[in-house]
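for the record, two folds in this file. i put them one after another cuz i was lazy. first one right below, seq on top, structure tokens after. the second one comes after a little note so u can tell where it starts
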Amino acid sequence: MIKLTDVSFSYNQKTILSNFSSAFSSPEHWAILGPSGCGKTTLLSLMGGILSPSSGQIETNGRISFCFQEDRLLPWYTVLQNVMLAADNTLPKAKRFEHARFWLDRVGLFAEQNAYPASLSGGMKRRAALARALCFDSEILLLDEPFRALDDALHLQMRSLVLDAAKNKLLILVTHDERDAQGMNTLRLAEKQHIF
């Protein structure tokens, strides 16, 4: 569960969100839509605790897994090592490798597990970042443009994978693509409209 009460956020004296209130409960699936610059990523970052509100309150109940708009893969780690960073570190190392390999297989990157990010295409990097987010044992999935840089076929495959992985979780994803919102609750943010 994530509950926002009268949340406002400003950046460089520019108001991005003003008195925003909403509640999101598990196992709901939400898509946040809207044009570039309307505050979608800011809102998701506030929900994930990456940003702190200027005012208002955010309550969260559950572990959060976050997929950033940028891939944020560590270049000195292999793809497998990057994904394994999100695995439960209370498990034995062999189990963590097994869990990371499972998610790499699900996103179609099992064969690239020993490659370094610099050798991957943009779409491969995106899938590696998605595998890392899904590898973390969480109750809440926050995904920022998770299917960016994917061709249509991979886009649909990864969307199906995410929905399956999140069937018992709270899923909130930011997207520009109306297809991603099909069958989901939607929250639409309008450009230059920051009071909700």
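(here's the note) second protein begins now
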Amino acid sequence: MNTDKIFAEAIANEYAPKGTSKVVALRKLDRRAKGPANIFAYSFGVLMTLVLGLGMCLSMQVIGGGVLLTGVGILLGLLGIVGVGLNYPIYKKLLRAGKEKYAFEIMQLARQISDSAE
């Protein structure tokens, strides 16, 4: 099996002009189905990571000082850990909902493309 040939064909397919607009429409539907879940996952993940980091800094007294801020830092750190831990299950749920919402249209369009290719 010539892997160089397969690799070259894969790259050529990326740059080849798409003759049908159905393929473009299928890609747009796929992005529309997955987009909100990805945007949420990245945003929520970054936010919870920053909360976790702030909690760690406060609890180790890198910023601030005193018993009160240490306690707040521990609580923020725990909140960040819970948020980071819940990010993936929430992402999967949102992704499943997006796929279910656009499943019929995507399957119908994919079937049309595969029928016209034969």
